[in-house]
Amino acid sequence: MTAREMAWPKQPDDRQWEGPEGDDPRTLYQMLRTSVDLFGKEACFGFIQAPGMERTHLSYDEFGNLVDAVAKSLKDMGLGLGERVAIIVDNSVEWAALSYAANGIGAAYTAMYTHQHGSEWAYILGDSTPSIIAVANSGILDKLCDNIADDAWPSKGIILLGEDEANQLPPEGVTVTPWAKMVAAGRKSKTTIEVADDPSALSTLIYTSGTTGNPKGVMLSNWNTLSNILCVQGVFELYPGDKNAAFLPWAHSFGSTFDLHWMIRMGVHINLVSDLTKIADECIEIKPAVLIAVPRVWNKFYDRVNAQFAASPVKRLLSGKARKHASRRIAKAGVECDAVEPVGFFDKFFDKLIWRKVRARFGGNIRFCMSGAAALSPDVASFIQMVGFNCYEGYGLTETSPLISANGWMGKGKSRLNTVGKVANGQRVVIDCDAWDDPERPEEGEIIVYGPNVMGGYWNRPEETAEVIMADGGFRTGDLGKLTEDGFLSITGRVKSQFKLENGKYVSPSPLEENLKLSPLVEQCVLDGRNMRNTFLIVHPNCNALRTALGKAGVSASNDDAEMCADKAVNEWLLKTLAKENMQSPNWKGYEVARNMILDPVEWTTENDFLTPSLKVKLRNLLTHHEQAIESL
């Protein structure tokens, strides 16, 4: 690998990060235009228009022309500098075109999830006051009509995607323009676009999950996001023409910064996954070189592969030998996170027999993987390394655009498990030990970040902004962590999610919960026990897997999920099994091991208000729902 083979070289370690310099893009739209000039005829997007159809591809030139047409139409609709466009659309070429077009004329975009509650849309729209709203289809428009007051609609109209005409209409005077008509008008428009050029201008308002109240609008500028992109360009092995399989929501900062904007910068062919339940199937067709995902995806991969390894005595034997050889090879190489090529006859034999087939499930072409948005289990990371993938975990928040640190960017052989790597170039991290008073872990504290990636603040919330952004510009992340002497950052929990038991011992639930989710019997779980003698679990089990495991153990179980979860014998068996297999040291201390458990037969979703749109558990709602059961423990 050499920097010359990539679209852009690695940034100098000693460059200044206060703002753009030299040929740095000054806005996201300018970044796109540079990529259009460099990669014009090369494929930019691949997408499946409808189930059963072949994948359609769009070149960088074609996408650039679409963005310019959309920008002209937005301007003709009256969108001006500093105004906002709301996007209630799933990942799509249209989503990307709207975001870049708005940026090009100096407007900002606010993206929402199509599966959010209508009341959440109403709140965000009322707070962000967009001039235009783009909606995915007539069903979304119907839901808006049911939830938005007549005086809260945008002044400059609605853009309706999809083939169907509108069912319900907004109040008189609010124009609904079909996407195809808007694009056609933009292509014919004689309007001249004066390209925006302010790196510090607001590029997006991303609303946080709101686990403890209404979501807050995070103000990110062009340079906030661009500084993240420039610091990883030329670092990871990513070449023009490479493919990715994009499925992380672009309404989330992790997805938009790395699965969209970074890919555009590097000349990658972005392939949209059309069915999230069949990611592996579409990867076989796409053959991506990079896969960016959240731990839930990697946990499912780990569970399914290991379940298949355990399916027969022969598979158990062969996979066990493959693990042994891979572990020995990796240990000898002395590297973590990076894949190590097989050496020797048996090493290569088992790689061909076992690991190559596993890699083939993701297309057989993956050069590296990235994991973020939540903690990745070291067991899962080690397994991915054995499979033969370079797997790098990163850390960040919406408020930091999002990247703060990551493994992988320091170079091959320099990553470390149980950490989220070293802090990215241009940033500085301080551990505030005064924010944390556990005498057993004096080296830990709240992570404070300084750098060009730190948000401008929360939209319309100066008091809450002042709570997290310090006088010297540092951002209080709310995360607990520690720094090693050689600069590796480890995340140990959340300041607010930590709780103290009756005996004064502190418990950090997040990493323990991730460890429990490695069990094929557990779909979702939380660990709590604040001010109690012992911790307890609330678990939504994989009911089918649990029923099968109970049968093999000789424990009778009802075919009704609710009845099975209410069965005391089932509860006792599962708690004992999890304690034996998933709540062991060194990951768990004795006082952290749960003594009680509540089984919940109902999946936690955004619809029943137990998950945020970014799939974080709304703990307060869950604890309130199970309040009676908790009191009886």
State the main characteristics:
36% helix, Rossmann fold, five-stranded parallel sheet, 19% strand, five-stranded mixed sheet, GMP Synthetase, Chain A, domain 3, alpha/beta, 633 residues, 26 strands
Structural features, described:
By secondary structure, the protein is an alpha/beta fold. Among the domains are: 223-451 and 466-496, ANL, N-terminal domain (Rossmann fold, 3-Layer(aba) Sandwich); 499-631, ANL, C-terminal domain (GMP Synthetase, Chain A, domain 3, 2-Layer Sandwich). It contains 20 helices and 26 strands. The strands form seven sheets. Strands 4-3-5-6-7 form a five-stranded parallel β-sheet, with helices on both faces. Strand 3, helix 3 (93-104) and strand 4 (108-112) form a beta-alpha-beta unit.
Provide the fold topology.
Blueprint: H1 28-39, E1 43-48, E2 55-59, H2 60-76, E3 84-88, H3 93-104, E4 108-112, H4 118-128, E5 132-135, H5 138-147, E6 158-160, E7 176-178, H6 179-188, E8 202-207, E9 217-221, H7 222-232, E10 243-246, H8 253-266, E11 269-272, H9 279-286, E12 290-293, H10 295-309, H11 313-333, H12 345-360, E13 368-371, H13 378-387, E14 390-396, E15 403-406, E16 422-423, E17 428-432, E18 445-450, E19 457-458, H14 462-468, E20 475-483, E21 489-494, E22 499-500, E23 506-507, H15 509-516, E24 522-528, E25 536-541, H16 543-553, H17 561-566, H18 568-581, E26 596-599, H19 619-625, H20 627-631
Parallel strand pairs: 1-11, 3-4, 3-5, 5-6, 6-7, 10-11, 12-13, 13-14, 25-26
Antiparallel strand pairs: 1-2, 8-9, 9-19, 14-15, 15-16, 17-18, 18-20, 20-21, 22-23, 24-25
Helix pairs in contact: 1-2, 1-3, 1-8, 2-3, 2-6, 4-5, 7-8, 11-12
